[in-house]
Amino acid sequence: MLQKFNELNRDLKININGELIHRDEAGISPFDSLVQGGDGVWEGLRVYNGKIFKLDEHLGRLRRSAKALAFAEIPSRDELVAEIKKTLAGNGMKDGVHIRITLSRGTKITSGMDPRLNQAGPTLIVLAEHKAPVYRDAEGSSGLNLCTSSIRRFAPDMMDPNIHHNNLIQSIMAKVEANANGADDALMLDQRGFMAEANATNVFIVGAHPAHSSDPTPVVQTSTTAACPEGITRQTILEICRAEGIRCVERDISLAHVYNADECFTTGTMGELAWVSKVDGRTIGDGKVGGMGAMTRRLSGLFVERTKVEGVTVC
Questions:
Q1: Residue 50, SS3 per DSSP
Q2: 3-state DSSP assignment of residue 284
Q3: Taking the model in full, what pTM does it have?
Q4: Which domains, ranges and CATH numbers included, belong to the chain?
Q5: Whether residue 139 has pLDDT greater than 60
Q6: Helix and strand element counts for the chain (H, E)
Q7: What is the mean pLDDT of residues 37-66?
Q8: Does the CA dihedral 109-114-119-121 come out positive or negative?
Q9: Torsion of CA 174, 178, 137, 89, to 10 degrees
């Protein structure tokens, strides 16, 4: 789970406000809102053979998040796409690429939280890296090991999870706990104790629906968006389920239901789908090496097929 340096990224050019700068020379002002308070929004994008999967869904969420944070200026969809294309062309990239696009409120005239101090901006950063899916399952994988974090996700009246913002300290603290416990990632709960998401991904379980205990038919289940963002990959999996006639629900999921699930997997742009073999020391399914569940394997394959045929051409 610990990512390693990719030699292909040694001479990356980072796009900052339209200028391509070598990674060793790139930087933003200490007065930028990102530095001052994590005041920005971001998206992760993945390039498959010259196309970005779900590009408009990601850019739509970026712009909605910026509007929710009352940014004075928000680049248009076409402006964002132009800078993405420039970045990929400048780095000679066409496939196997992950892009992190970040938009801050901009630069302040002096230190402080007041957005009225932001009198230049916004700041747009496009960082494209050669990066394979970091959670991607290879044959023989032992699956992910999750542990439940003591750090809870905010309720919507504390911080709306549908604002995809850069203040990620909750996730970082949860990851610190996971590292200390020898786990790959942290499972995070909402304020009521129901599953929200992992520190960097959405989470699904597969098993009989507890409200229909007499029906053993596997149901794909994930938490509501009351305390987790509307993940783009999460939504894609729900779309695939409906298109394939696979039963799926969004509901409150307790830890007991996670522990007793037949299968568990995570979803996200950086990692696609990855199966989970253990949660808090409990084995999920048979937990064997290479033991990805049948439903997870099916959905993973269907997701990969979509990435081959869908997307917006950018290079």
A1: coil
A2: coil
A3: 0.94
A4: 7-130 (3.30.470.10), 144-309 (3.20.10.10)
A5: no
A6: 7, 18
A7: 98
A8: positive
A9: 50
Q: Which of 85, 315, 277, 64 is nearest to 185 (CA)?
A: 277
Q: Which pair of structure tokens corresponds to residue 240?
A: 């695939």
Q: Six-digit token pair at 64?
A: 């909605």
Phi, psi of 227 (to 5 degrees): -140, 20
272-279 and 202-207 strand pairing: unpaired
Tokens of 42: 């971001």
- Residue 125 reports pLDDT greater than 70: yes
Average pLDDT, integer, range 288-292: 71
User: Over 90: is that where the pLDDT of 245 sits?
Assistant: yes
| 300 in Cβ contact with 241 (< 8 Å) | no
From the list 40, 23, 47, 35, the residue with the least C-alpha distance to 75 is 40
Other Cβ atoms closer than 10 A to 279: 23
What's the pLDDT score for residue 285?
85
Q: Which has the closest alpha carbon to 265: 213, 302, 217?
A: 302
Whether 288 has a pLDDT exceeding 70, the answer reads no
Q: In this structure, is the dihedral angle defined by the CA atoms of residues 286, 289, 292 and 297, taken in order, positive or negative?
A: negative
Q: Which two tokens stand for residue 66?
A: 């910026």
Which residues, including other chains, have CB under 8 Å from residue 161's CB and lie 6 or more apart? Answer: 153, 154, 225, 226, 227, 228, 229
Strands (E) located in the chain: 13-16, 19-22, 40-48, 51-52, 97-104, 107-108, 118-120, 123-130, 144-148, 185-189, 195-198, 202-207, 219-222, 248-250, 263-268, 272-279, 282-283, 312-313
The overall average pLDDT reported for the chain is 94
- Indicate the pLDDT class of residue 142, thresholds 50, 70 and 90: confident
How far is residue 223's CA from residue 250's CA, in Å, rounded to a whole number?
Answer: 5
Q: How far is CA 196 from CA 19, 60, 153, 154, 226, in A?
A: 38, 23, 7, 10, 8
Q: What is the rounded CA–CA span in Å between residue 27 and residue 35?
A: 11
HSE-CB for 161 with a 13 A CA cutoff: 22
- Say if residue 126's pLDDT is above 60: yes
